[in-house]
UniProtKB/TrEMBL annotation:
GO MF term set: NADH dehydrogenase (ubiquinone) activity; NADH dehydrogenase activity
Protein's name in the database: NADH-quinone oxidoreductase subunit L
Residue ranges occupied by any NADH:quinone oxidoreductase/Mrp antiporter transmembrane domain in the UniProt entry: 101-380
Membrane topology label: Multi-pass membrane protein
Enzyme category, top tier: oxidoreductase
E.C. number: 1.6.5.-
UniProt record, GO biological process: ATP synthesis coupled electron transport; electron transport coupled proton transport
GO CC annotation terms, alphabetical: endomembrane system; membrane
Organism: Kribbella jiaozuonensis
Domain of life, source organism: Bacteria
Subcellular localization: Endomembrane system; Membrane
Positions of the NADH-Ubiquinone oxidoreductase (complex I) chain 5 N-terminal domain: 41-79
Length: 588
């Protein structure tokens, strides 16, 4: 009964966010103050909210995806339902706070609450070691970025003499102050959105429930970084150095993450690296510093929320049925194409999601990705170096994205033509060779509460591409289509031969995690042990010695108190004689 009540509250809150977006649609932009508090003698902290087109867009995205996740979770989550629903609801409320805030400190509150909720949700299955480790890693790496974010708030607030977002950029500010403040904010964005060099936490967050992954990757947390730069775009546009840094980080990240996704062997890990790469495409659009670049980035954010949320919910059905995200397990069902035949709704909806992600013409991802390419081309044509870098990087990423989408689709849903070669390509030998062949008839699509949100998001993965009208640059569309086709054909060719390209450097994801382990984790652990040893063996030794000295002294003085009068008189006589002798010596 309690669990049901919590689920009703969770779904109701998400639908309330959607209703708020609908009611605010078309309303003139405005700022609202809802009280505040005096901090010290000079600073008034006010609760200020903002309503504009960006607010409505993000509320709609957050509300719809959150509602789909809450409904889907009814059929998915079976353990600790009350705490799970409460945390998802709080997570959604924190993102809503970020979206509607017109005060940097109020935004920071929602920003940090999201981080805390992500830690608890990723570690929902806390009995699993990988879930605990992934939750801790996400918490620490995002908090590292948030240190810079906090200092950035202070720098910009003091520089503009206001912490109100709508007032930033409206008054003069020293150029170096603006650059430092925006770069510090960018550090927090990089951490929250898992961009290089703070990208490793997101793929390791996959032990959490699949609907949680859908919420984090599609509508909250990682999307907050894109929203923040879009909200403060007039400030970032004035800091060209920061935009150049953002462009470099985005281009490196999208290629790095896409190449990792090409070699990953777990469904959710492929999707996680895909999220990192797609977010980088949004940041690349923002780094152009133009209105078209901003619009293209937000358009891609909208479509990405639909198809990435859909893909994670589809992955949840697969895990629910098969019990593992690894291709090596799913492959045993693909011998007869069982996963495609038995999970028909999942197959169709996941195909739609992968087509949108790969940029297949007609699907939402095709239009939004091409809008970023077109914005980059406009800049490149004007001689912008950043425009050329973004253009080439996004085009290469488009081909790589098509490769891993087709690879994932074929390995999961279709019979492997050369199974022996596939086994060797994955692990060198079959780790499940001693297990009995699973019964394909046991595979079932999820319940209607799981399938309904998937169908809704599948409609969005197609239809959202037409919400901004169809403004195609046919030359760019032809180029990106050819690139996607080349990437897909390469994946098909390798799959048809039972091969799987996993160079050591890609299989190990460039060795970034082990490098961080050696460069940061091991030294920190060593310093922690040194600090503990110093506290125990040095400082603690002095404390213990002082206490022991006091005990010994008290024991010695206690022995002087014997209660024997003759002993006292003898000691007094000896003392008097000693004093007399000492006086005589001094006098002579």
């Amino acid at each position: 009964m309690i669990a049901t009540a919590w689920r009703v509250v969770g779904v109701g809150f998400s639908l309330l966010v959607v209703l708020a977006a609908a009611l605010l649609y078309g309303v003139d932009p405005q700022q609202t103050m809802a009280g505040g508090a005096m901090i010290g003698e000079d600073f008034w902290f006010s609760y200020e909210f903002r309503t504009d087109g960006l607010t409505v867009l993000m509320l709609a995205v957050v509300g719809v995806v959150s509602a789909c996740v809450q409904i889907y979770s009814i059929g998915y989550v079976r353990e600790r339902i009350a705490s799970y629903t409460a945390l998802v609801t709080l997570f959604t409320a924190a993102m809503v706070t970020v979206v509607i805030s017109d005060n940097l400190f109020l935004l920071l509150i929602g920003w940090e609450v999201m981080g805390a909720c992500s830690y608890l949700l990723i570690g929902h299955y806390w009995e699993r070691r990988d879930a605990r480790a992934g939750a801790m890693k996400a918490f620490l790496m995002t908090r590292l970025g948030d240190v810079g974010f906090l200092f950035g708030i202070f720098v910009l607030g003091v520089g503009y003499h206001s912490f109100r977002i709508s007032e930033l950029g409206t008054s003069p500010i020293e150029p170096h102050t603006l650059t430092i403040g925006t770069i510090l904010l960018l550090v927090g964005v990089i951490g929250k959105s898992a961009q290089v060099p703070l990208q490793t936490w997101l793929p390791d967050a996959m032990p959490g429930p699949s609907p949680v992954s859908a919420l984090i990757h599609a509508a909250t947390m990682v999307a907050a970084g894109v929203f923040l730069i879009a909200r403060l775009y007039n400030v970032f546009v004035e800091a060209q150095t920061t935009l150049t840094v953002l462009a470099v980080v985005a281009c490196v990240t999208m290629l790095f993450a896409a190449s990792c996704a090409m070699a990953a062997v777990e469904v959710k890990r492929v999707l996680a690296w895909s999220t990192v790469s797609q977010l980088a495409i949004m940041f690349a659009g923002l780094s152009l510093g133009t209105h078209d670049g901003r619009r293209a980035a937000l358009f891609h954010l909208l479509t990405h929320a639909a198809f990435k949320g859909l893909l994670f919910l589809c992955a949840g059905v697969l895990l629910h049925q098969v019990g593992s995200a690894a291709f090596v397990v799913l492959r045993r069902y693909t011998r007869r194409g069982a996963s495609r035949k038995q999970l028909r709704v999942t197959f169709v909806t996941m195909t739609i999601g992968l087509a949108a992600l790969a940029g297949v013409p007609g699907f939402a991802g095709f239009f939004s990705k091409d809008s970023v390419v077109e914005a980059a081309w406009e800049q490149a044509r004007d001689g912008s170096t950043v425009g050329w870098i973004v253009l080439v990087s996004v085009c290469l990423t488009a081909a790589m994205t098509a490769f891993y989408c087709v690879r994932l689709w074929l390995w999961v849903f279709f019979r492997t033509p050369a199974l022996a070669g596939a086994v060797g390509a994955f692990e060198g030998d079959d780790p499940m060779a001693d297990l009995d062949e699973p019964d394909a008839n046991k595979l079932r699509d999820g319940s209607w509460v799981m399938l309904t949100p998937m169908v809704l998001l599948a409609v969005g993965a197609i239809g959202l591409g037409y919400t901004d009208g169809v403004h195609l640059n046919w030359a760019i569309a032809a180029i990106t289509t050819v690139l996607a086709l080349l990437g897909g054909l390469a994946a098909y060719s390798l799959w048809h031969r039972g091969a799987d390209p996993r160079p050591v450097v890609l299989e190990r994801e460039y060795g970034v995690d082990p490098a961080y382990q050696r460069l940061f984790v091991v030294p920190v652990q060593w310093l922690a042990k040194l600090a503990v040893g110093n506290d125990r063996d040095v400082i603690g030794a002095y404390v213990r010695a002082t206490g022991r000295a006091g005990v010994l002294a008290s024991q010695g003085f206690r022995k002087l108190q014997t209660g024997n009068v003759q002993t006292y008189l003898t000691a007094a006589v000896i003392g008097a004689v000693a004093l007399a002798i000492l006086a005589g010596v001094i006098g002579s």
